[in-house]
Write a structure and sequence with these properties.
9-stranded mixed β-sheet, 2 domains, homodimer, 11 strands, about 375 residues, Peroxisomal Thiolase, Chain A, domain 1, alpha/beta
Chain lengths: ~375, ~375
């Protein structure tokens, strides 16, 4: 496959955008990415989205956005893998450009979640789980994660407050990201006092949803004149069982293991080469599990990276440098594209106070469902 | 891009499958295709589906099916482009295998539509149209097509009964297809007496929905030993405005024109080289418009191909040789894959009484929305 690079990026602030429709939110990110890339059109559009049919009564988001953005007559399609939809759309675009059939592609991850009542959105999010064997039992998505977190605490002897550093780091980093949903520093005390949602997951273990979109323009690497070039060096997608109860070991993210190993191999790197890791901290437990399955910590020891202060922008394994899902926000189908955009910002050196010094290799990992579908991408700076 | 071929195909009968769930229907087609291909696993799974989140409360169909089918840990994703979802999933799989990153792929188009009341399914289907500017006005999907058909009749002077041959041909061909939804011969008289749905579209202008799935396994062409090899020689996708009222000319399928021209060029053929054309006769008007935009008839003259008896398996432009959407049935997100499977059957010479003699080049055209997203694929028999 031919080498592909990211030429432009764009994003919107994640918020409750009562004044903006689905098309406007996605359009804003798309236009920003096209402008950043200096392009007026592209061959094809790939849209990552999970909820629009249920929340906005709108399917067919490929055509919906190609029409709105002015990519008339161009190829366009929507890709869905629950909360992994953003990275799944990115990988579909990558395959098309790598094949040689498509010469330039725009990828937009977009989600408009606040047009429905919370209970309706909770029900819509539950479509990521197994309808017949999980949701049928009345469990919600956060409930599934709570069961995993409780078992993990029991198995490895961690206390709830040991997870605080993940949340504190994300909130601290989001203070310097104007696109983040939350701008509020938190402490261990505040973390522990936060309202319980599904024991042991409290409000500060969980990421806030919201309306938002992030986008990127990709082209063959040999067409990029701009410096530094941001190369897509590794890309892989893997799945696990859709229901968590079907797994032999519910505390190991097999799909993170498989997709990260394949991405490392493709990029010719190891975990120690990764300068920045935008991981999927939808819940604090997922941050720990991602670090473990991706080779940054031993089983049961992901939490220690936070306690040892290794995850800050100055640490050994900087994660969630723009706020992560926890504080930047989690507009589900858009999240994977926010992660890609943020890794590009790091490699370009545009992150100000949360810039990782000399970042050359970055990784983004996007999770759909409770570890059911995981995509890992590795980007490299090429001066 | 490297040459890709279709190694195996599978399909289920389209029906009201009260006794089968979404996973069983998709699984049946998938297992049939894997068995036909003689393969036990593949690298990746691409699922085409439009309605499962709304009808079955199930998103994340990539993982849902990779889990059910036993493609554990493999890449899997869902692609959606309304009624064009099947072909869109096929094209995504093609790009991945053509790029060299994926060595074998299973594509499943699947839809379970009969688990909800008709009015709910009608509302779910309307998500293919523009929610803000079309559906908001209270128009249904069939209503939009009715407006186009009425204008076409007015503009070119055709009577309603002039559309009868499309429906008669599809019903006649479906008599010999065990997987078809309807097995009933019809006449011009019956066509004209049929119940009106949205003037001038009556029940026999419209395709029946249903539950069904169709699947194919694709691999690099140089890995295929089986004869004949079925090569994917042309593939293209194009869009139009999502709302029909935004088009300068609502009676011309611009996206069929663009995608068919590109597919012809890629395959090095012209319309006269096409031996069989599985077109998207969701409504009889769409059969006429597809023939015109794809270069088989002049503007306003697509209907004449039916009246001149050119569209039967013995005609100059055989269409819907297995029953088309009209009589084989239209399980929306699955339809594009039924078309691909049927073209393969023709090129393999497996169509019995509706076999097109000496068929060597076949085309499938799948439409999402009212011409909003159209994909054209050209397959070639390589002895």
């Amino acid at each position: 496959m031919r080498q592909v690079a990211i030429l432009g990026i764009g994003q919107t602030k994640i918020d409750e955008h009562w004044d903006k429709s689905l098309r406007e939110i996605g359009g804003d990110a798309a236009f920003a990415a096209m402008q950043d890339a200096g392009m007026e059109t592209v061959d094809a559009l790939y849209v990552g989205n999970m909820l629009s049919s249920m929340v906005s009564g709108q399917n067919q988001l490929g055509t919906f956005f190609s029409d709105w953005i002015g990519l008339w007559r161009q190829e366009a399609v929507k890709i869905e893998a629950a909360c992994g939809s953003g990275a799944a759309a990115f990988r579909s675009a990558l395959m098309a450009v790598a094949s040689g059939d498509v010469d330039s592609a725009l990828v937009v991850g977009v989600e408009k979640m606040t047009d429905k009542a919370g209970r309706d959105v909770t029900a819509a999010l539950a479509t990521a789980a197994d309808a017949d064997y999980e949701v049928e039992q009345g469990i919600s998505f956060v409930g599934i994660n709570a069961l995993v977190m409780r078992r993990y605490m029991h198995e490895y002897g961690w206390k709830h407050e040991d997870f605080a550093p993940f949340s504190i780091n994300s909130h601290a980093n989001a203070m310097h990201n104007p696109y983040a949903r939350l701008h509020e520093k938190i402490s261990v005390e505040k973390f522990e006092r936060s309202a319980m949602i599904a024991t042991p997951i409290n409000l500060l273990d969980a990421s806030p949803t919201g309306d938002g979109a992030a986008a990127a323009v990709i082209v063959p690497a040999d067409k990029v004149m701009r410096k530094p070039r941001i190369l897509i060096s590794g890309s892989a997608s893997a799945t696990d069982t859709i229901a968590v109860h079907s797994r032999k070991d519910p505390m190991f993210l097999q799909a993170a293991y498989s997709s990260s190993r394949r991405a490392y191999e493709m990029a010719g790197v190891t975990p120690s080469d990764i300068d920045v890791f935008e991981l999927h901290d939808a819940f604090s437990i997922m941050a720990a599990l991602s670090l473990e399955a991706s080779g940054f910590a031993e089983r049961g020891q992901g939490v220690r990276l936070g306690l040892d202060n290794e995850i800050s922008p100055q640490g050994r394994v900087p994660v969630c440098t723009r706020g992560g899902l926890k504080a930047r926000g989690h507009p589900v189908g858009a999240t994977g594209m926010y992660q890609i955009v943020e890794v590009v910002q790091q490699l370009r050196g545009e992150c100000g106070k949360t810039q990782v010094d000399g970042a050359k290799i970055g990784m983004a990992q996007n999770i759909g469902g409770s570890g059911a579908s995981i995509l890992t991408h590795i980007l490299k700076k090429d001066d």
